[in-house]
Amino acid sequence: MKSPAFAKASAGKQVMKYNPQKIEKKWQKRWLDEKVHKVSEETKKQKYYQLETFPYPSAAGLHVGHPKGYIAEDIHARFMRMKGYEVLYTMGWDAFGLPTENYAIKVGKSPQEVAKDNIKNFKKQLRMFGLSYDWDREINTSDPSYYKWTQWIFIQLFKKGLAYRAKAKVNWCPQDQTVLANEQVVDGKCDRCGSLTEQKEMEQWFLAITKYTEHLLEDLKGLDWPEATIKRQQDWIGKSEGALIKFEIRNSKSEIEVFTTRPDTLFGATYMVLAPENPLLADGKLQIANRKEVEKYIETASHKTELMRQEDTKEKTGVELKGIKAINSATGEEIPIWVADYVLGSYGTGAIMAVPAHDERDFEFAKKFNLLIKEVVMPNIVDRKNPPVKGKKFVERENVHAIVRNPKTDKYLALKWKKFNWITFPMGGIEKGEDPISAAKREVLEETGFINLKLVKVLDGRVRAEYFAAHKDENRVAYTITVVFDLIDYEQKNINQKEKDDHEIIWLDRSKLNYENMTHAESDIWNLKLNGENIYTGSGILVNSGKFDGMDSEKAKEKIIEFVKGEKVTKYKLRDWSVSRQRYWGVPIPMIHCEKCGIVPISEKDLPIKLPKIEDYRPKGKPPLASSEKFINVKCPECGGPAKRDPETLDSFVDSSWYYLAYVAPEISNFNFQISNINYWMPVDLYVIGAEHTVLHLLYARFITKFLFDNGYLNFKEPFIKLRHLGLIRGADGQKMSKSKDNVINPDPLVEQWGADAIRLYEMFMGPFEDGQPWDPRGVVGTYRFLNKIWGLKLTNNESITNKRIQKLLHQTIKKITEDIQNFSFNTAISALMIFINEIDKNGIFKSQYETLLKILFPFAPHIAQELWESLGNENLLDYESWPTWDEKLVQDEDFELIIQVNGKLRGTVLAAKNISQKEAEELAQSQELVKKWLQGNIKKIIFVPNRLINFIVE
Ligand code: ANZ
Ligand code: ZN
What we know:
This protein has about 950 residues and is of the alpha+beta class. Ligand ANZ binds near residues 259 and 260.
């Protein structure tokens, strides 16, 4: 039996195959024609603003990886609308910038033309996915009505002294003939074209982002962002609390001042290093005996970028300054001074005290040049697995651990303790008059019987640890030294019975020699040392540090600063943002250079300063706009005399630093910084952004927001409350999709063949949203089949079919999908849908259930859901339907058969809701007709086993 409405629809469907090509175009047209997704401020609904990184429209068009984030956001937007929110969700184009200009040069067109074509293509491609944007709010950063405001922001920054010109060493890309921001140089190479960048001294426009350092750090606290992203922001800002400490130079008036974050290690500073740029090297005051050699070294270093100099993998280089020595103010000892390029001129004071025992870079350098390594911090561990027990006495011990490797099997000797569930190295106390090596050998012999060991090395330093020694029922403070041996052969002495009772021998893999698998917390430190990472960089207890011996290293920091009259300071790695580019395709900088008045901003009423069309826009080492007489020559707005416009353009990161504000206007032509829409829509509630944009764009956007807040244009300090990243879809070969690897997949023919809904579902089903996955061409076929199954579902009126189970499963599915969309867990949401469909595929579904199903399918596959909705006789759009709710009882309470006993005998069963209380169970059982007659007597006692049985003991 079929319901009448369905009979009609179904009849149609039986002759009509699922034809996505037809239905997708049909609904997309209706959505656009009726402006279904147009958003309004004139509503009582709660606002929800969701944003996604707007694309840079390249000539290559979209590949299948691009829409992943867009599809996810579209699902979320459709879901939120059905939940009753007014959702601001739109799209724009990050159209200025080098790649477009370079491409235009290549094909001999103007960047304007190229950008227009690319946008047209991108838009067509995005539209075919059925994304529910409010297209009226579309923006384009190369459109004068947009960049008018980019220029306006620049002028505001200038007026507050936050945009300034300065000479600085900048990253120069010889290929692109332009300056790059630090953030755009990756591994010493241009982020845009891959060429090796050079260091060049140039005058540049900078934005003073460093004025906001503390705010940029502090305000990260309230954000719902992935932890790793917050960490990368913090690392980029690079706040370091430390000290300035001065070192005298023997027989000289000059001093070397260093910045250190570890003043506690001062007693271990065994040499000093000056950066090649340090002015002390150039001013001639130092009596350097090998000046020629030093100058040559400085010359060589000047060709390397800071990034290259900081690479850990590069072998360290340097030259000792002969004839002079510094004095370690703590020890009074003379120490050598070096010049080396691993110390940067631009950070701290451009000089360091080197502590090779506790700093990786210094350690490497010291090893290479045979410099003294002096340990001053002893690791200090409170063993969290066997913490000291309160009230037990503390006993100090000198311990030795023996690490014995069997070279034949590459396994390591360990003891498995029988009574304590311990795994340890052979170990024990060092007895009076014993050296660590013989103590270690003795312990191995006593505990394992092995006789023939070859000494490999004694690991540097001791480790202090506090723990509870269960086998002796006392707390220990153990100072442990570790000796490493190779086993020569298997010759073994018989060991005594007590040792046999205590433990057995086991052999461990190298990877198991750590605290995770072993009993002693020290294992982790030995593990590192065994790896050849022979240094300890953590905090601990001072040793070899005179009167500070035994002090906690954190506490010692302050004391040692005082002791040598140092000064506490905070340093940051963040530098001001270099924004001017010597290229054509960007926002003209709205400034005028007048010989008399200096740099003068354009009057705001003259904005925008339009980018003129010029014949030859190719870069030739000087900004192309400088050659356009018509553009460049103007009257000075202050004195009226002849002046020149700024010939440079802004980097496209400036354009994208505020685009999320522009979307709030119904159309960009209505935008200005006074409209109330800004504070109405902002901050962004949800931002989906590629994990590769975690530093630069976010930092710039946050800076611009904070600046505008400070100047009264905004009432919020952070632009993006909640951030989610997406993992990239890789090529079928597992590699990043790129033209050069020939693994790029164009979505157009796929949409043509399988439809957008199948691709939407597949991209969301591939795996967790924040992970990357390789494209599997068979995947779309799978989701296409799934959609066909939905298309062929049958309605039923058969009451017996609409059993409780389906209803329950439907409610569970609604709940699962609701929560999964909120958590961006789209793959599991689709699984839940599939489970449900499989269930009803067998027996058919009631119309009301079917309608609910279409509503929860709609965000994922909007075209097919809408088509089927219509086929049920509904004329309205699903966009305006409410999101289904679920009955919490149905979802949670699974039924079970409650066994009813009287005096231990089975007298009946009844279906009961899971987790019912004893009282509910009693009532339920007593109400059962079959049971009643057995319960006539006096109930003495009731035994209740939750979710199983109830037993009445009756007299
Ligand atoms: C002694 C020391 C001992 C250091 C130790 C570290 C560990 P962050 O945390 O990144 O700010 N340093 C200072 N100026 C430098 C420069 N211009 N170029 C290269 N390295 C420089 O790093 C601060 C530490 O980096 C400073 O603390 C200094 O080395 C080094 F066990 O001083 B330290
Ligand atoms: Zn002037």
